[in-house]
């Protein structure tokens, strides 16, 4: 494996992304401690992102609102706007691409790039150019931290170290040149290394590895055994500065989940919400060119959970997916009390196969399936043409709160079509 | 001044999708660079000029639009915490 002798990778992470986008578009929020929350009108949730001012007051992401209010009584809570963050992400990536090509988008607020040979001697100036461009063309309230290293993992860690450098938060620009390694790593705690969580830290401690220096002194195969898979060995090579990055991963499922508002938790309301979520998941699956052979429905009730799955015949059309969902709901209605309250639900299409690798099924009516696939294709075409859900199979009742199917997860950036 | 003032349609890869959103009615449509290159008027225009020339596809709206690049092919996950 190649071990780069100079900086080859850049990792950029926006500072408090959701909150800084809110501050950029809403001047009234600038300079104030801002916490972004999933929904308006309830205190029974947590902060999903917070501004620099809030972080300076001790607020952290995933902190319950009640606890955050105790730390910072003047905290301004703003409900999330996923479509706004998605648009900001697209514009910011376009601006970064104008300075240097983006190698990979790791999440809605993290990108990584290859550093061109001409910039490797002085990568910090490259970072300053990116920051200037964002400030000039998007706005000065959206700041980012940039790290540089021999590989993506070291660049990411440098980015995080630069973000919280010298008692301040954000706007970092820190390079870890291969010739100074591993000195910067020795200043970190084990849990500062991406991939080492609380459980792994305990497992390492049981083997006497309680510091980064002890971790670096191990052998690759030793970490492989400790991790129980190849990830440990990969992490060893990444920390030692070898040219290594995450292998491409295959998509395994498409699904959506939703917490239902308190007055929309009856079985019938949950069933309607699940239909909408399933149609949205099936649309995404078709866009990416897959078929599904399994469907799962899971429900969280106050006192218990319920889940069931159904086998499908490599389907991609809404009709087949909805028919299977109705079957699952019939089973749910038999198992659950009639007045059950569904707090949270989710639908998942799994066992994916490529849409153009379909095996014809002799045991089901293939002509009928092809007809429904043609109808689904026409529905998708109409919706795409009109830029909204103009046609759907059965009722289309978006649950209160909006953004059904448009949730931003760590690695998923929704498309405009997900908000239709 | 932004990325749109630096790029022409012909600088984009033909399969690249552009998101076109109406400022007035919010309608979103997608066009590939290849499809837009098929319109001779756009051939030598920068993207900000294309943006000014385009109008909402809804014939009852015809509002001004916003052009955006879609970067969905570049997303990569973390595997075991490794970037």
Structure characterization notes:
The complex is a heterodimer of chains A (420) and B (83). In chain A, 39% of the residues lie in helices and 18% in strands. In chain A, a hairpin with a 3-residue loop joins strand 10 and strand 11. With 83 residues, chain B is an alpha+beta fold. A 3-stranded antiparallel β-sheet of chain B has the order 2-1-3. Chain B is globular. Chains A and B meet through helix 4, strand 5, helix 6, helix 11 and helix 14 of A and strand 2 of B.
Question: What layout of secondary structure does this protein have?
Answer:
The complex is a heterodimer of chains A (420) and B (83).
Chain A: E1 9-14, H1 17-25, E2 34-37, E3 49-50, H2 52-56, H3 65-71, E4 76-79, H4 82-99, E5 104-107, E6 110-114, H5 123-137, E7 144-149, H6 152-163, E8 173-175, H7 183-186, H8 198-206, H9 212-216, H10 220-227, H11 230-239, E9 253-259, H12 267-287, E10 290-301, E11 305-315, H13 318-335, E12 342-354, H14 366-386
Parallel strand pairs in A: 2-4, 7-8
Antiparallel strand pairs in A: 1-6, 1-7, 2-3, 5-6, 9-12, 10-11, 10-12
Helix pairs in contact in A: 4-5, 10-11, 12-13
Chain B: E1 17-22, E2 28-32, H1 33-37, H2 47-53, E3 65-69
Antiparallel strand pairs in B: 1-2, 1-3
Rg of chain A is: 24 Å
**CATH topology assignment of the largest domain in chain A:** Alpha-Beta Plaits
Distance between the termini of chain B: 33 Å
Strand count, sense and barrel status of the largest sheet of chain A are: 5 strands, mixed
Query: Which sequence of strands runs across the widest sheet of chain A?
Result: 5-6-1-7-8
From the helix content, strand content and strand pairing of chain A, which structural class follows?
alpha+beta
Which terms would index this structure?
heterodimer; A: 420 residues; alpha+beta; Alpha-Beta Plaits; DNA polymerase, domain 1; Dna Ligase, domain 1; 5-stranded mixed β-sheet; 4-stranded antiparallel β-sheet; 12 strands; B: 83 residues; 3-stranded antiparallel β-sheet
């Amino acid at each position: 494996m190649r071990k780069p002798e100079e900086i080859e990778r850049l990792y950029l992470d926006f500072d408090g992304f959701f909150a800084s986008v809110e501050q950029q578009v809403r001047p009234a929020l600038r300079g104030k401690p801002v916490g972004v929350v999933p929904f308006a009108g309830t205190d029974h949730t947590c902060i999903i992102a917070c501004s620099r001012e809030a972080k300076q007051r001790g607020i952290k992401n995933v902190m319950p609102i009640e606890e955050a209010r105790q730390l910072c009584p003047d905290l301004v809570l703003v409900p999330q706007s996923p479509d706004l963050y998605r648009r900001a992400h697209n514009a910011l990536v376009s601006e970064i691409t104008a300075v240097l090509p983006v190698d990979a988008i790791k999440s809605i607020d993290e990108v990584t790039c290859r550093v061109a040979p001409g910039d490797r001697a002085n990568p910090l100036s490259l970072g300053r150019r990116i920051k200037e461009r964002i400030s000039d063309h998007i706005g000065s309230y959206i700041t980012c931290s940039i790290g540089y290293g021999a590989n993506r993992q070291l660049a990411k860690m440098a980015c995080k170290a630069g973000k919280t450098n010298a008692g301040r938060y954000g706007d970092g620009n820190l390079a870890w040149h291969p010739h100074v390694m591993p000195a910067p790593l020795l200043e970190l705690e084990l849990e500062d290394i991406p991939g080492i969580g609380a459980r792994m830290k305990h497992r390492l401690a049981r083997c006497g590895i309680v510091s980064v220096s002890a971790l670096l002194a191990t052998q690759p195969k030793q970490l492989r055994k400790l991790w129980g898979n190849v990830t440990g060995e990969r992490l060893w090579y990444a920390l030692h500065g070898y040219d290594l990055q995450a292998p491409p991963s295959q998509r395994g499922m498409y699904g959506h989940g939703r917490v239902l508002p308190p007055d929309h938790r009856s079985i019938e309301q949950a069933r309607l919400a699940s239909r909408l979520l399933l149609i949205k998941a099936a649309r995404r699956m078709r866009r990416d060119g897959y078929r599904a052979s399994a469907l799962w429905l899971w429900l969280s009730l106050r006192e218990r959970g319920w889940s069931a799955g159904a086998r499908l015949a490599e389907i991609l059309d809404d009709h087949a997916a909805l028919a299977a969902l109705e079957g699952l709901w019939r089973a749910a209605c038999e198992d659950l009390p009639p007045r059950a309250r569904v707090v949270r639900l989710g639908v998942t299409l799994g066992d994916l196969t490529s849409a153009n690798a379909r095996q014809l099924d002799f045991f089901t009516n293939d002509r009928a399936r092809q007809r429904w696939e043609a109808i689904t294709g026409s529905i998708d075409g109409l919706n795409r043409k009109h830029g909204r859900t103009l046609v759907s199979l059965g009722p289309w009742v978006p649950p209160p709160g909006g953004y059904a199917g448009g949730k931003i997860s760590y690695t998923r950036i929704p498309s405009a079509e997900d908000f239709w | 001044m932004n990325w749109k003032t630096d790029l022409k349609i012909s600088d984009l890869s033909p399969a690249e999708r552009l998101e076109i959103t109406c400022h007035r009615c919010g309608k979103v449509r997608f066009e590939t660079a290849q499809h837009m290159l098929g319109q001779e008027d756009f051939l030598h225009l920068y993207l900000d000029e294309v943006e000014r020339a385009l109008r909402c596809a809804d014939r009852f709206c015809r509002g001004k639009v916003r052009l955006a690049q879609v970067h969905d092919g570049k997303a990569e996950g973390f595997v075991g915490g490794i970037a």
